[in-house]
Design a protein that fits this description.
The structure is a single chain. With 121 residues, this protein is mainly alpha-helical. Helix 1 packs antiparallel against helix 2.
């Protein structure tokens, strides 16, 4: 990829030099910024090709699992830690009887909605 990027930037520079020799300095007004734009674009593509290749391998399933949660799930064991690891675990109140409802929330009656005036939709 880097060789191809160098070839593209080199061809753009040679094209600018040939145009300068053929038409003079006014070519540099348009050709200079174009050469800078081509160089910047190619540099960004070269720098982002590494992460894109890693993402492509990960999507195709060729990359090794780099996440401890994925590795634990593939081994069939709970991960044990993480952002919401204990969020869905039942708390210590879950062992109480239904009769001993000291920690329960009382039921509330629904709030009645006011009637709409006649003719309103």
């Amino acid at each position: 990829m880097t060789r191809l990027a160098g070839a593209v930037v080199g061809m753009a520079a040679v094209a600018l030099a040939v145009a300068y020799l053929g038409f003079g300095w006014p070519v540099l007004v348009l050709g200079g910024p174009l050469l800078v734009g081509i160089t910047t674009t190619v540099a960004v593509l070269v720098l982002t090709e590494g992460p894109r290749a890693v993402l492509r391998e990960r999507r195709e399933g060729r990359a090794e699992p780099d996440s401890p949660w994925r590795a634990a799930a593939e081994r069939g064991e709970p991960s044990g830690s993480g952002l919401m690891s204990g969020f869905f675990d039942p708390g210590p109140q879950s062992g109480r009887d239904a009769a001993g409802s000291s920690g329960s929330v009382p039921r509330q009656r629904p709030v009645p909605r006011p009637a709409r005036p006649a003719g309103a939709r």
